[in-house]
Amino acid sequence: MALSFKLLDSVFLSRRQNALHPLLGPLLTDCISKLYSSYRRPGTSPDNTPPWKMNFNFGKGVDVIKKHFGLLKKELVDHWKGPEGYRFDEYLLQQTRVVWEFRSQKDLDDWVVSSDAEIGGKSEAYLKLGKNNQTALLYGTLNTEVPHDGETRYSGYCSMRTKLPKGAFGTKKYYDWSNFNSLYLRIRGDGRPWMISIYTNPHFSHQKDDLYNYFMFTRGGPYWQEIKIPFSKFFLSSRGRIQDNQYPLWLDKISTVGFTLGDKADGPFQLEIDFIGLLKDRAHTEEFAYEKYERNPKV
């Protein structure tokens, strides 16, 4: 029997979507927002601006072309060096890797912060550099008051996620984490539970709503905590529902990573992140933590 949670009405999903658990709904909103860019808040008029009416700056266009040729050059050089720009022997022997750290405003620009304010809610979320510019501090206020628009039924979430990686001339890129088996973070929270979501590139269009999720529980207090989550623990969901047919995370097609708060507890929150990295734990041999059902089993 399918497990189901009660979550927020996703911003970019159909208006007829059932209300599920508030921790999982925002994850869908974060990771597939670009796929549902036609969404319009209730009561707002559509944008009927003709496509030929746009601002064009020749100087900026030249700068963009230079930037993309620079990216293309780097991609070609990295390809000849080895996997992801590492020498082949270095890649095979690599035990840890820091993917995101927060030491400047440029590091924060790789992330997108969102909240239920996008659907008329009253939650607020902000991202800034922490003390001594050595961490990222996600903070704000959670408010579960439902917008009075006659359509939204649940509210109260805040989240941050990475931007979709892009290559030269806007081509799709992915993170290849197949050489690792665990996600490793150093964080400091306020005791609230968070949801970590990983979005992978789907092979088929009907998989565009698939997400891999797992929970992260913070202790609160002034002390840092290091969290190791094996990739085998992430479970598959689609449009907010945990799937009967579970499959391991596709580690060679990682698109985005996100953190979402939606515990229905009104009030201030904060999450401080030192770094987000990868770990190859040779002591962890589990391939997948969940039961996989066989379709049409032979009698």
UniProtKB/TrEMBL annotation:
One GO BP annotation of this record: mitochondrial electron transport, NADH to ubiquinone
Pfam families reported in the protein's UniProt record: CIA30 (PF08547)
SUPFAM superfamilies from the UniProt entry: Galactose-binding domain-like (SSF49785)
GO cellular component term, pick one: mitochondrion
Localization terms from the record: Mitochondrion
Subunit and partners: Part of the mitochondrial complex I assembly/MCIA complex that comprises at least the core subunits TMEM126B, NDUFAF1, ECSIT and ACAD9 and complement subunits such as COA1 and TMEM186. Interacts with ECSIT. Interacts with ACAD9. At early stages of complex I assembly, it is found in intermediate subcomplexes that contain different subunits including NDUFB6, NDUFA6, NDUFA9, NDUFS3, NDUFS7, ND1, ND2 and ND3. Interacts with TMEM70 and TMEM242.
Assigned protein family: Belongs to the CIA30 family.
Protein name from the UniProt record: Complex I intermediate-associated protein 30, mitochondrial
